[in-house]
Each structure stands twice: as structure tokens, then as C-alpha cells.
Amino acid sequence: MTDDAPELRASDADRERVAEVLRDALAEGRLDMTEFEERLDATYKARTYGELAPITRDLPVGAGAAAPRVSMTKEPVRDGGWAGRITGAEASSTWAVAVMSGFQRKGRWTVPRRFNCFAFWGGGEIDLREADFSAGEVVINCVAIMGGMQVVVPPGVEVVVRGIGIMGGFDHSEEGVPGDPGAPRVVVTGFAFWGGVGVERKVTRAERERLREERRQEKLERRRERERERLERGSGRRELDASRHDLHDLHGGNRERERELERERDRRRDG
């Protein structure tokens, strides 16, 4: 972790890289479970690079994890197409464990061909909405013992569920929805005992805000259209009233002229 700019805000990807180093250290025996949980909790609470740096300062980088370095330059904006998200790159994280605790994989990360996760008296969230993919088909292998996991996929992704549940279950509600051309295929498998694995399809926060703004603009346009119609109806009524008034004046003037002619005839007859 770079110390060049400790005051800069850390991203989810930065926290995940540090968490991966901690998991490797736990597996190698460099940390016991108590130390691992304390440091992992500090990792997910960290807001700046300066808060993340001390967490792994006394640990070597494991062979399976990239060095937790921070890029000082912004990554290019993705075009939003699936072709740009199936990268074939090395995965950001390949496994997760929650023992009487929880884990999250979310934000911008690279999903491996096979992601293994385990929860015992705990829970986890695997959010793929903003993720890149190492391959066109990825497997999310979930083992939930008296715990639960939630897999969140974006619209357009094909989902296949093959898990086995004993006094628990896997959510099959998102199966059967055709994927978009070029979109990845997500296979959710594993085992649930007194636990469950849910699968839901949700748009990203940015997409949700975009849709909300579109609906707001549509409502405004409908309101403007109703106001225009109301003004046009009001203008039409005013024109009709003016025509009726003019016609009334015309009829009134004609009747007055007729009465004047009658009076003139009467004077001539009497004279």
C-alpha cells in the first residue's frame, strides 16, 4: 500500500486487496483467527490509504495475491458492454470465509472462473453488478452451514443454480431468464445445511439513479403536457365566450334597430 498520499480515500478494490493478503496470512499460520478477524474488521472500516497501510505492513504478500498497491491514476471508463467486462484477467479474489462473521465481495472486482465461499454461523454477499469476469462462465461455489449467502447479479446475465440443500435451500427464482448476447453465465452451486443461498437480479446504483431520473423527466413532461392542454382549453373557452358575447351584442343591436324603426313608423302614422 502506497504511503505517498495517505489522506486519499480508499476504494472497495483497495480494501479487497488487503483482505486477500490477510486471508493468505491466516491460511499460512501467520495470523491466528482473533488477529485475522480484528485486522479484517479494521480493513472494511478503513476509509483512507493511511488507515489501510499499517494492517499488512508486517505481512509478506502471498503467492496467490497481487501486491496491495494503489493506483494514483483513474482507470478508463468502461463502455458498459459485456465484451469489455469479460477480461480474462487474473481474479481479484478467489475465496471468502465467514465464521460467526460476514464477508462481502462487491464493487469493481474481477470474478475468477471459480469462486469458493464458506459461511458457518455467518453470512456473505457476492455482488457481481459492477464486476469484471475472468471467463464467459464463472462458478460461485457456496457452502452455508447454519448461515446464509446472497449472490447479486446484474440484468442480462444468465443464471444456473445447481446447489443442494438439506434443511436449507438454494434460490432458483432467477433461472430461466435468457442472457444478453455476449453476457457471462453464472453457475451457483454448493451445499446448504440449515442455511440458504439466495440469488437476486438487481441494477447498479448508478443505473437505478439513471432510471429514477428518466421517470422524473417523464413525469415532468406529462405535467407540462397537461398544463399545455389546460391552457389550450382555457384559451378555447375564452374565444368561445368572446364569440358568444359578440353575437349577443350583434343580436341586441339588431333588436334595438328594429324597435327604432317601429317607433318611426308609428310617428308617421299618427302624424
Nutshell version of this structure?
The chain is an alpha/beta fold and 271 residues long.
Overview of this protein structure:
- By secondary structure, this protein is α/β, with parallel strands linked by helices.
- The protein has helices at residues 12-27, 33-45, 49-52, 205-270, and strands at 95-99, 102-105, 110-111, 114-120, 123-127, 132-133, 137-145, 148-153, 158-161, 164-166, 169-170, 185-193, 196-201.
- Strands 1, 4, 7, 9, 10 and 12 form a 6-stranded parallel β-sheet that branches. A 5-stranded parallel β-sheet has the order 2-5-8-13-11, with no helix packed on it. A two-stranded parallel sheet has the order 3-6.
- Helix 1 (12-27) runs antiparallel to helix 2 (33-45).
The gyration radius over C-alpha positions equals 35 Å
Poorly predicted spans: 62-77
Order of helices and strands: HHHEEEEEEEEEEEEEH
Q: How many E-type strands? A: 13
Q: What is the approximate shape? A: elongated
Q: What is the assembly state of the chains in this entry?
A: single chain
Mean of the pLDDT scores?
Answer: 80
User: Which structural class best describes the helix and strand composition?
Assistant: alpha/beta
Main sheet: strands, sense, barrel = 6 strands, parallel
Strand content: 15-25%
Portion of residues within helices = 25-40%
